[in-house]
Amino acid sequence: MTASISVHDDTEYPELAIAYARLLQHWKRTSILHSVMERDGVWELNNRTCDSQIHKINIRFPDEITWKNSKAQINRVSNHYLVYVEHWLDGDQYQVISIISPTMPMSWARTYFLAELERRAEEFQSSL
Predict the structure, then answer these.
(1) Is 53 in contact with 85 (CB distance < 8 Å)?
(2) Which of 25, 55, 85, 128 could be a cystine partner for 5, CB 3.0 to 4.6 Å?
(3) Is 20 helix (H, G, I), strand (E, B) or coil?
(4) Can you give the pTM of this predicted structure?
C-alpha cells in the first residue's frame, strides 16, 4: 500500500502531529501499529463527521509510558486522540486534522470544535 499522509496547517501541536503522521503512514502501509497508538475508528458523533470520513485513534503523548506490545489494541485506552481524514476518492490519501487532548474540554470538541473538524475535513476532501 502506498498511503500518503499530510498534516493540516491548523492542526494543534504541529511538531507532534508531523511525528504521529509518520507513524500513521507506517501503520497504513505495513499494518504494523506503533506502541503509542491504539483503537482506531470512525468519529461517530453525527452523520456529518461520518460522511466527512473523519477517524480518530487514541495515542500516547511522548511523556507517557507506551503500551506493552503484548497488550491487545482493543484494550489500549488514552485521553489523547489523533484525528485524521481518509479521502473519499482515494483511500491511500489521509490528512491529520487535529490532536485532541484533555486540555481541551470534550464539550468543546462536541460543539464549536466539531464544526472546525468538519471544515478541515471538507477542505481536504475537496483538495485532490
Answers:
(1) yes
(2) 25
(3) helix
(4) 0.84
